């Protein structure tokens, strides 16, 4: 077993390196991904080792980057596109929604677009405007796109591999506040299914479901709740489209309570769909309404205020207490 402790950033770098080594049709494109190695150094050293024709520094033009990737995919390549920051993706939203997501259906299945769009997302890094968005629900709402987010180094490595191997377009959200969190990665492992949720901590009283950056907060909340005698299960959703409703249902049928947590605004967020579906599926099991914890329905604030905006330990524990009080 090739087990190594590495950060999420390093795991993503190693995953991209493995993909480039394995398949000559894999290309990496984006702003500053080459010589600089990306603003978060996720692509560090890849252009040096694989050349400028496979790790391509692009102009500052997100629509052009994704549009070019679509053309390359039509010619048999497997482009991996980096959007430098979450808030920069919107100039490319038209290309993603009207072309990338629709081409397979438009061609009656004859055309496939194996494009991965990597997006560092979320807050808590003290950044300026347009650098701390959580737009995952906008993409999960669009048929034809897969939308995933790892929360740890092992998933970062393997989920990116699986995304690149997918013949369908994948929007790959990377929790930038967790880039330097470390964990063990077994590069010889057999990964689980890309869109399956995973129980990270077992419990019997309540389920906390989260993905990406908020999984760590939920694990901390479960540990804090345990000190008060509350048994909280933590479910890493891993995928926002498709969502593993069977996995959530299995957990909720055991614990009978569910709190869904994400950084994005609660209003019409991923948690809204989960709350509605689980209420339909588990109505006779639930002992409390499904609760949601997330950001406020307001533009992301200046860095000095982001601690007030982002859901933290106290807000998650407050939801746990409210659920258990029913």
Automatic annotation (TrEMBL):
Residues 6-181 form the Transketolase-like pyrimidine-binding domain. The keyword Oxidoreductase applies. The keyword DNA damage does not apply. Its cofactor is thiamine diphosphate. Gene3D superfamilies: 3.40.50.920, 3.40.50.970. Keywords: Oxidoreductase, Thiamine pyrophosphate. Pfam families: Transket_pyr (PF02779), Transketolase_C (PF02780). InterPro entries: THDP-binding, Transketo_C/PFOR_II, Transketolase-like_Pyr-bd, Transketolase_C. Signal peptide: none annotated. This is Alpha-ketoacid dehydrogenase subunit beta. It comes from Streptomyces katrae.
């Amino acid at each position: 077993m090739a087990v190594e402790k590495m950060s999420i950033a390093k795991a993503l770098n190693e995953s991209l390196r493995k993909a480039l080594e394995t398949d000559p049709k894999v290309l990496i494109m984006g702003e500053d991904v080459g010589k600089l190695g990306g603003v978060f150094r996720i692509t560090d050293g890849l252009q040096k080792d694989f050349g400028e024709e496979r790790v391509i520094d692009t102009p500052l033009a997100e629509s052009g980057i994704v549009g070019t990737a679509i053309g390359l995919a039509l010619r048999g390549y497997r482009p991996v596109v980096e959007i430098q920051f979450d808030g920069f993706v919107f100039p490319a939203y038209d290309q993603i929604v009207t072309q990338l997501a629709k081409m397979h259906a438009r061609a009656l299945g004859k055309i496939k677009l194996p494009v991965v769009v990597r997006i560092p997302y979320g807050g808590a890094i003290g950044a300026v405007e347009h650098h701390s968005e959580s737009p995952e629900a906008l993409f999960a709402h669009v048929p034809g796109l897969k939308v995933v987010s790892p929360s740890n180094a092992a998933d970062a490595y393997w989920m990116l591999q699986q995304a690149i191997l997918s013949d369908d377009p994948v929007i790959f959200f990377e929790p930038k506040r967790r880039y330097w969190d470390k964990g063990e990665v077994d590069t010889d492992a057999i990964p689980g299914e890309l869109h399956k949720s995973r129980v990270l901590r077992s419990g019997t009283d309540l389920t906390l479901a989260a993905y990406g950056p908020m999984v760590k907060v939920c694990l901390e909340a479960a540990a804090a709740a345990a000190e008060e005698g509350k048994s909280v299960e933590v479910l890493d959703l891993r995928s926002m489209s498709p969502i593993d409703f069977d996995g959530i249902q299995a957990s909720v049928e055991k614990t009978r309570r569910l709190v869904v947590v994400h950084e994005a605004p609660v209003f019409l967020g991923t948690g809204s769909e989960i709350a509605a579906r689980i209420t339909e599926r588990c109505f006779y099991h639930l002992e409390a309404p499904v609760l949601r914890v997330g950001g406020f329905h307001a533009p992301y604030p200046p860095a000095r205020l982001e601690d007030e905006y982002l859901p933290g330990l106290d807000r998650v524990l407050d939801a746990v207490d409210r659920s258990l009080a029913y």
